[in-house]
User: Fold these one by one.
Assistant:
Number 1:
Amino acid sequence: GENVEQHPSTLSVQEGDSAVIKCTYSDSASNYFPWYKQELGKGPQLIIDIRSNVGEKKDQRIAVTLNKTAKHFSLHITETQPEDSAVYFCAARGMYSGGGADGLTFGKGTHLIIQP
Amino acid sequence: DGGITQSPKYLFRKEGQNVTLSCEQNLNHDAMYWYRQDPGQGLRLIYYSQIVNDFQKGDIAEGYSVSREKKESFPLTVTSAQKNPTAFYLCASSRDSGGQPQHFGDGTRLSIL
């Protein structure tokens, strides 16, 4: 099955600086890579996603890049603000050993702390 | 407002007891999923359903059961066979299972008395 590694586990940046979170995946057949933001006591919220036929996608202060050859993808947040503080999860869609499955495999999360 | 509703928000289970977590969606999505989240861990897939009256085991299905009798509902039962049930349980849905975005509810936190 798919395996997703996410780094770092904790990231502290000054307000206004940029933050970068990186993930690697193992299944070269994976073709969909979403990023989720989770606030305390809430469910994850989709913030951006990218498919394997695209190398980069941007939405205002958030961007995601994908390197299929190296099997890694990254989340970039520019001009960070206090409300960006949360746990961020990357995920990859691959095929499960059970056959025909279509769930997501998640990284273990990055706790992003924005220092005022 | 369309969305996914999970209830209850907090649930307590006694030893040897089965409990059922509710998940309802009004997004008209075909696919629904149950994940378990432990502290410092990512989400792990328990069960998923691609269509009504069909469901499949995920990575950690042992000790859990589900049903999908209606499109909008996908309840999860945590049975007494699940020896470590304390966790945050998240339900999600997507338009179909073809790599469409998954949307999550706000979770149920299950604890053992």
Number 2:
Amino acid sequence: GAVVSQHPSRVICKSGTSVKIECRSLDFQATTMFWYRQFPKKSLMLMATSNEGSKATYEQGVEKDKFLINHASLTLSTLTVTSAHPEDSSFYICSARVWGGNYEQYFGPGTRLTVT
Amino acid sequence: EDQVTQSPEALRLQEGESSSLNCSYTVSGLRGLFWYRQDPGKGPEFLFTLYSAGEEKEKERLKATLTKKESFLHITAPKPEDSATYLCAVPSGGPEGQNFVFGPGTRLSVLP
């Protein structure tokens, strides 16, 4: 149980375009989903917290207009990187918190974004 | 401010050579200490949650323990497939414990 999927696993896009990453909880309902960014050989950096039906809460220094987050249902959150630049290239990971659970977060497999 | 540190940063072991990884935390009101394993290019995989000092949990060659200030992940007779980065985290961010504060991780390499 507690499986989280992400799509796509890898994406290459051109500078200036937008790309959408989906995060789904497959076998449970998640009132809260989290989006992280990870640089090579570094730990996870929280970008934003996404609550179903409300606006996402962004961490300091994360541009909300650049990283658009939508949490449309209890099983789906999306991250859209708008007007992507090469410096947005990174590994993006989502996680979902089980509704009614004890703070556990279950992570997706990650999405490797490369902006050329 | 809640903080998590991990040591060592990297650890190389021979197959069968047991060792321990350390996770030290400073948090106002512990609501669990979480251990994850992360393989390169993958998302973190949940291993354990510990909630109170003295608690221990085991899974195959791994055993996690918790004190009031730190947690240890003991690896007994490791195999090459145990090679990964091990992350610990604590819930933070108000009464809901919304966010995780992650440690920097320990990169474990087990050589055959």
